[in-house]
Amino acid sequence: MQTITRHLRIEGRVQGVHYRASMRDAARRLGVAGWVRNRADGSVEALVQGAPEAVQAVIDWAHGGPAHAQVAAVRMTAVADAPQHDGFEQRASA
After folding, report:
1. Relative to the CA of 69, which of 17, 37, 61, 78 has its CA 20 to 30 Å away?
2. CATH number for the 4-79 domain, one of 3.90.1560.10, 3.40.50.2300, 3.30.70.100, 3.30.420.10?
């Protein structure tokens, strides 16, 4: 199975609206590994890793987020040679 890794930076009204917990739940449901955390600048940062279709599904989800989020932008970067993650976790803010 091919695995890809993408780093995401989500901007907009994405803190205080359960974005991290909702992304964690979506990623786990889709079988994607990685992590998500809040950033001091008000954005949310995530690393998503898995089958290309599953990673794309999480990226598509990120553009909308949970009900009260207002996503202004999702910036994505491909990550080469990323360590393999096991499961998807919600991390403390950075």
Report:
1. 78
2. 3.30.70.100
Which tokens in the block code for residue 13?
């009204």
Catalytic residue among 9, 20, 24, 75: 20
Q: What is the pTM of this model?
A: 0.94
* Strand arrangement of the beta sheet that strand 88-90 belongs to: 70-78, 4-13, 44-50, 33-38, 88-90
Domain locations in the chain?
A: 4-79
pLDDT digits over 11-58, tens only?
Answer: 999 999 999 999 999 999 999 999 999 999 999 999 999 999 999 999
Q: Tell me, yes or no, if 38 is annotated catalytic.
A: yes
The answer to whether 44 and 14 have CB atoms below 8 angstroms apart is yes
Establish whether 29 is a catalytic residue. Answer: no
